[in-house]
Structures are given as structure tokens and as C-alpha cells.
Amino acid sequence: SSNGFFFLTPFGTRFNAELTRDGKPVTKPIFRIGCAVPPKNGEPPHAPPREYLQNLIDAYGPIDQLLWSTRFRTHAAIADRTFTRLGAAIFLVGDAAHIHSPAGGQGMNLAIRDAIFLGEAVTKHIQALAENPDVDDTILEEFAEARHARALEIIKYTKTLLTLAGLPYDTYAWWMPCSKASVRDLVLNILGRFEFVQSRIAWGLSGLGRR
């Protein structure tokens, strides 16, 4: 749409009975609809209210009835410290340490990598402690600093993804009769044809490029 992205994903007929069990029988396909309001004043895009969604459905979507809707606002936050000691060592990983938008599944990927590298750091610390009972927490502190830096990178990455997804289709200016979203679509259409670009995108989304 001219106000952001708008897509339909069919659920399939097997979901009909579950989603409409308290209502009238539905014989037509049920779709999941995702759309976003473009960012304003530097804020990330967010899911629209029901009225806005219904207007989009009426204008662009072959939808007869809106059964259920919700909205969410994306935001990001990160803990100042992810490691401390209160007698025992205490670590924050996953959503306890950092939160951001669900773009690209990056939160889950980062949480899994946090847990994997936490295991390695704790193992190294235990081995060092066995050799020297007076060893300090350098290994654990270095792990916490490294994961904190990675979390900041992911937050920046997901904000970039949302910004690109929420570019509007409105004409940019009278002297430039095209929109930011149109330029984005054209660039993605051209570059997306190359296998090395596809591989690079997949590598970035997987998190393997920033372990």
C-alpha cells in the first residue's frame, strides 16, 4: 500500500475450525495479514490499529471479514551489565539481556548464540579455576563484553530491516517522481537475482556472520 507494506499469508482450510470454533462455520480461506505503518520522527514502524487495517483490506485485499486483529510497537533495549556476582556468578542472556524487534528472527538466533558461548566461557573458567583457585573473573567478563557488543550490532541490524520494510510509496519530491519504497523494490529486484547477494543475506540473517 501507499502507507507501508501489506501482505497476505494463507492459513489453509485446516485452521478454519480452530480459528472460528466460537463463530459461524467458514468455508472460505483464512489469511494472516501483516502490515506496518511507516516510521515517523525516527520511530520504527509498528502494527496499525484495527480501523487502519480494515481500510487497507477494503482498498487492497480480497478479504470479506476481519476476524481478529492486534498490534505491537517495536522497541529495543539492552542491559547495562550482563554479568555480575552475588556470591555466585549471574549472567543475563537472551531477552533478559537484550530485546528488539522480531525482524528476521534475530532475537532467537542471538539468544541461542549467547547460550552456546556462555557454555564455552563457563567451561574455560572452571578449567582455569581448577588450575588456580585464586583465578579472577576475566574470562567471564570478556564473554559478557563480547555478547553485549553483539547485541548492540543486532539491535542496529533489526532497526535497519524495519526501516527498509516500512519505506512509504509516496512520491519523494516533485523533482523526483518516485518513492523510496519503489527505489528499494527496484534495487532488491536487481540485486536479488545474484546468488552471492542471496547468500550474503542468508548469512547475515542466520547470525553466522556475527557470532
Q: What report would you give on this structure?
A:
By secondary structure, the protein is an alpha+beta fold. The chain has 3 domains: 6-57, no CATH class; 74-166, 3-Layer(bba) Sandwich (FAD/NAD(P)-binding domain); 169-210, no CATH class. The chain is built from 6 helices and 8 strands. The protein has helices at 16-19, 50-60, 106-131, 138-165, 180-191, 195-206; strands spanning 6-10, 31-35, 77-78, 83-86, 88-91, 98-99, 171-173, 176-179. α3 (106-131) packs antiparallel against α4 (138-165). The relative contact order is 0.12.
**Count of structural domains:** 3
Proportion of β residues?
5-15%
Order of helices and strands: EHEHEEEEHHEEHH
State the share of residues found in helices, binned by percent.
40-55%
Number of strands: 8
Uncertain spans:
none
Shape: elongated
CATH topology of the largest domain: FAD/NAD(P)-binding domain
CATH class of the largest domain: Alpha Beta
- Biggest beta-sheet profile: 2 strands, antiparallel
Q: Spatial order of the strands in the main sheet?
A: 1-2
The radius of gyration over CA amounts to 23 Å
Name given to the CATH architecture of the largest domain: 3-Layer(bba) Sandwich
Q: Averaged pLDDT, please? A: 77
Q: Can you count the helices?
A: 6
Structure class: alpha+beta
- Distance from first to last alpha carbon: 36 Å
Which homologous superfamily in CATH is the superfamily of the largest domain?
A: FAD/NAD(P)-binding domain
Domain FAD-binding: 53-154
Cofactor: FAD
Protein name: FAD-binding domain-containing protein
Keywords: FAD, Flavoprotein, Oxidoreductase
